[in-house]
Amino acid sequence: MLAAIDDAFNHESSLLGRFLTTTAHFMLYAVGAATLARIPFYLGIDHWTVRLAQFVAALLMLIGGLHIIHTRMCARCIADVPIDASARAEKERRVLRLNHALATKRGVGTYLGLIVAAVLANEVFGLPRVVYLPVDAAVVALTYSAWLHHRVRPWCPHCRPWDNGEGIRESSPDPVVKATR
Ligand SMILES: [Zn+2]
Ligand SMILES: [Zn+2]
Question: What is the pLDDT of residue 161?
Fold first, then answer.
């Protein structure tokens, strides 16, 4: 299963591979669209178009997430690396920290706990839909932090000390060299 996903995401020559790569880069737009689609949901509107928009946005975020996990930096990802990547990584180190925290068992557990709590509160105890807000906030934070982390990974201050073998081992490029490029 994993090998099949890996394969699909790394075949730029196949139609599916190109489709996945292209779609994956809509990830941040998908988060924006998903957030907008939540407004009618919170207002209690259950029209099928709202559900469809939510479904499409969730699918795009999933493809974007799998692209990050399974693809080596593709040309478009490299093009998205900010020019001031090291400064950006430093400035947004808390976002990157969050990405590391969410990737742990405790992070996943917290996320699942939020979902269960929200569903229970809404469906069983009849509380208003606002109880889903923490879940939505977690999804936005997770998606943005994963997107950012993928692009500034060589400069991520949290990858280096606790490198688990997957991260890049060589030290980050000198910021001065980078800036004069
Ligand atoms: Zn990419
Ligand atoms: Zn990192």
Answer: 57
Q: Which ligand is nearest to the CA of 69?
A: 1
Same domain, 122 and 143: yes
Same domain, 72 and 97: no
Tokens of 45: 């509107």
Q: Measured between alpha carbons, how far is 90 from 152 in angstroms, rounded to an integer?
A: 10
Distance 89 CA to ligand 2 centre (A): 9
Which ligand lies nearest the alpha carbon of 101? 2
Q: Would the CA dihedral through 89, 95, 98, 103 be positive or negative? A: negative
Number of domains the chain is built from: 2
Question: Rounded to an integer, what distance in angstroms lies between the CA atom of residue 43 and that of residue 128?
Answer: 10
Do residue 68 and residue 96 come from a single domain? no
47 phi-psi bin (left φ>0, alpha ψ -120 to 50, beta other): beta
Domain that holds residue 180: 82-181
Q: pLDDT tens, 123-166?
A: 999 999 999 999 999 999 989 999 999 999 999 999 865 445 45
Phi and psi at 125, nearest 5°, equal: -95, 0
Residue pLDDT, tens place only, 33-45: 888 888 998 998 8
Residues within 5 Å of ion ligand 2, judged at the Cβ atom: 156, 158-159
81 C-alpha to ligand 2 centroid (Å): 15
Are 20 and 30 part of one and the same domain?
Answer: yes
